[in-house]
Amino acid sequence: xxxxxxxxxxxxxxxxxxxxxxxxxxxxxxxxxxxxxxxxxxxxxxxxxxxxxxxxxxxxxxxxxxxxxxxxxxxxxxxxxxxxxxxxxxxxxxxxxxxxxxxxxxxxxxxxxxxxxxxxxxxxxxxxxxxxxxxxxxxxxxxxxxxxxxxxxxxxxxxxxxxxxxxxxxxxxxxxxxxxxxxxxxxxxxxxxxxxxxxxxxxxxxxxxxxxxxxxxxxxxxxxxxxxxxxxxxxxxxxxxxxxxxxxxxxxxxxxxxxxxxxxxxxxxxxxxxxxxxxxxxxxxxxxxxxxxxxxxxxxxxxxxxxxxxxxxxxxxxxxxxxxxxxxxxxxxxxxxxxxxxxxxxxxxxxxxxxxxxxxxxxxxxxxxxxxxxxxxxxxxxxxxxxxxxxxxxxxxxxxxxxxxxxxxxxxxxxxxxxxxxxxxxxxxxxxxxxx
Length: 436
Fold this sequence. Notes:
By secondary structure, the protein is α/β, with parallel strands linked by helices. It has helices at 2-9, 33-40, 59-68, 71-74, 97-105, 157-161, 177-186, 204-211, 223-227, 246-252, 322-336, 406-409, 415-435, and strands spanning 12-13, 28-29, 48-56, 83-91, 115-116, 123-130, 144-153, 194-197, 215-220, 259-264, 278-283, 294-296, 305-309, 313-319, 337-350, 365-374, 379-388. 26% of the residues lie in helices and 26% in strands. It folds into 2 domains: 1-154, 2-Layer Sandwich (VC0802-like), CATH 3.30.2130; 159-295 and 315-421, Vaccinia Virus protein VP39 (Rossmann fold), CATH 3.40.50.150.
């Protein structure tokens, strides 16, 4: 998320930081404070950003680093008519108040001229101490220390304010608010973009994009979901109300002006005119756990089921293999994204069989990032971010069939049975243990 936002707002990781990317504290090179604030107006992963005045692997190195920091850069924030306070944060360790005061007093060599104001200071400074990532092996002394001036906090409060628990219209697969904002940031959604979700459901992914000023739209094969009809997903509610729909969700957050529309459509069948349309495609395809992947069938095909929607809408559905969903998705992104536009989607994985080779590829799309979210001991899903780097040509349409790498992707089709086989084994194991 941070890497995507840096490419959008400006900046990069510092050279030494690339060695310590697993640290909870990251050093970034950002040209201006304005850009730093722009970054923090987007991120839900980062907690705060600071202007770094000094750092080191010991207290002595930190103090030496601070003494070498240019005085002219410090002085604007240390004037006699200003107020300040100093915070201490220790990662993976709890410090006593006496220890904190001792560490603050050790900074008396800094030319602070203002008055201390603990309630409403003009400037806030932080001592950040890193005691490693292992709670079972906490060192006596920090492995790295930082001192800096606080600039801004991230947007982690969005996770609570946009919580699905408080949302007007939800479904079985409504996306968690935190993940929804992370996906929008991976897609580098910005004001006036057009963002499309081909498996829109209740529109959870549209909300985060609209929050960042993009115009949003989507499609879904489920007539009832698009129109807010049928049985409700919320506990203690039998049927959906007359005002439960995607538009109402965006209206709830004051974002209705960014809502273009949602269509009932089968993603496996073309409905859009040729030509690039979308700046970002963000989606969570169905992979058969809570919702079955479906597409339109015909009487000539082997009919799996005939379903009846509200208001006498009938459709014949047939199976839509996961591998076909992902290839249709990549082909669609390659054809309908603008150059430099991004495709962000979730790919379910059976972990014992996972290799990089099973990530679907397309010659028009470059893989930007591949992040894992664990679902169980044997399954996970990976957040895949791709960027359009090449114009789509007719010969690119079925290119994945020609490169000899199509077969490994077929493994995605059995994800559901592998997922539930693991659940069945776990239940059987627990029952066996209870019998002992």
